[in-house]
User: Which sequence fits this backbone?
């Protein structure tokens, strides 16, 4: 038993296979996590469909269960019964593992008038402070105190409900927009969020809330108007397809010079990624309203700058950097969203990539080939970049740190194997992982 505990899972990829076939894209992680928190707002049962099978989804279910939401799962369908929320404090041991757990603060405050939520944990890609969330809730009449790593919030005075307010976000934060939007669905009066985030996941959350009777206008623009209602009712709602997963598979097709199809997708949500792929060389064809096909071509360098939606997504920066590492010529990648999101560069360099970093800018000089190597994933999207690079590299790539990959990609190995990739997940004794030469 002891030796089993000392084993760690790794993915071994034997590069060079051409991919072919069709990939079914799962529900969007970033949408699902916020919408799961949004079920707290409902006074009746809720059903969510198309939920991806991910570690983060499991953790959010555990957090909701801990605060009294009853949950039943049947495949990718989850039924929620939030009628009798028993306690207003989410447990630290769960919250510390999942940044998105902080989403519960807005709905809990709206439903109960008081809550205690530990400050969240999660990724190591840079500072993602909650001050915009807090200021928004304060503007709506909440007293908020942060001490000993716990955020305590309650509606001021004798009031039971938050009050609508006009809130300007200093930065179009997705999380803050979602927190304030959820909190304001049950507030007294009108709330206006200016400089709101415009991501598709914002629209999905707004559509979910509206399916329960919320009154939200302008989601997807920089100004969202919410008129509070007395209560929200039951709904049956499907999560939209994951645009980051779809773009990751497009990059996998491009870097392996493979023709693949993806469905279901919402092409408009992939506009910036598709435009950049076409600039690099491959063709992306719309086969149907929810199906796209990548046709490979020779690869040439391109410059990328990450920006809030509808700009190029920071969640695709690492995967595209792997592609640019094998694209002819020089490319420049500028990361403007998260300050620590270039940690994958060192791992790509281990595989032979020619990348120089200065501050938040990486200069990528394309090389003819990458070589398989033992590598360590540093965050969720970095792990996907290493998988993509391993598919195209010569020889065997061994990827450690799979806890990151499992947070955001539903059965990525199974989907890649179905396309013809040669990879497997195996358990390796920990002592071998400390000696990378043994993994070659």
Assistant:
């Amino acid at each position: 038993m002891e030796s089993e505990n000392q084993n760690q899972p790794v993915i071994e990829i034997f590069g060079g296979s051409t991919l072919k076939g069709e990939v079914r894209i799962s529900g969007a992680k970033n949408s699902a996590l916020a919408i799961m928190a949004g079920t707290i707002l409902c006074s009746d049962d809720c059903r969510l469909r198309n939920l991806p099978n991910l570690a983060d989804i499991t953790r959010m279910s555990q957090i909701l269960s801990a605060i009294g939401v009853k949950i039943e799962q049947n495949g990718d369908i989850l039924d929620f019964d939030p009628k009798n929320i028993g306690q207003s404090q989410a447990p630290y041991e769960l919250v510390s593992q999942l940044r998105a757990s902080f989403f519960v603060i807005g709905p809990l405050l709206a439903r109960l008038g008081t809550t205690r939520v530990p400050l969240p944990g999660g990724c190591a890609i840079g500072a993602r402070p909650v001050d915009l969330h807090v200021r928004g809730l304060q503007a709506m009449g909440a007293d908020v105190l942060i001490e000993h790593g716990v955020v305590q919030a309650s509606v001021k005075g004798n009031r039971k409900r938050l009050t609508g307010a006009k809130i300007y976000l200093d930065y179009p934060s997705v999380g803050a927009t979602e927190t304030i939007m959820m909190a304001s669905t049950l507030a007294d009066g009108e709330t206006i969020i200016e400089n709101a985030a415009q991501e598709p996941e914002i629209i999905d959350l707004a559509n979910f809330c509206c399916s329960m009777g919320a009154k939200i206008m302008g989601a997807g623009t920089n100004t969202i108007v919410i008129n509070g209602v007395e209560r929200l009712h039951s709904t049956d709602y499907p999560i939209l397809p994951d645009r980051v997963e779809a773009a990751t598979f497009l990059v996998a097709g491009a870097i392996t010079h493979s023709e693949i199809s993806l469905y279901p997708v919402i092409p408009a949500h992939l506009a910036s990624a598709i435009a950049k792929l076409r600039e690099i060389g491959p063709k992306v064809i719309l086969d149907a309203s929810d199906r796209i096909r990548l046709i490979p071509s020779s690869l040439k360098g391109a410059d990328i700058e990450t920006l809030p939606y509808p700009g190029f997504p920071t969640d695709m920066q690492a995967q595209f950097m792997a592609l640019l590492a094998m694209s002819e010529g020089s490319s420049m990648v500028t990361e403007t969203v998260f300050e620590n999101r270039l940690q994958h560069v060192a791992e790509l360099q281990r595989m032979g990539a020619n990348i120089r970093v200065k501050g938040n800018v990486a200069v990528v000089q394309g090389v003819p080939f990458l070589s398989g190597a033992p590598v360590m994933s540093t965050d969720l999207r970095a792990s996907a970049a290493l998988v993509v690079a391993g598919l195209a590299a010569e020889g065997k790539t061994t990827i450690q740190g799979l806890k990151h990959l499992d947070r955001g990609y539903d059965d990525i190995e199974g989907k890649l194997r179905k396309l013809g990739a040669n990879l497997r997940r195996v358990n390796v004794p920990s002592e071998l992982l400390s000696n990378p030469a043994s993994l070659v």
Notes: DSSP finds 16 helices and 23 strands in the chain.
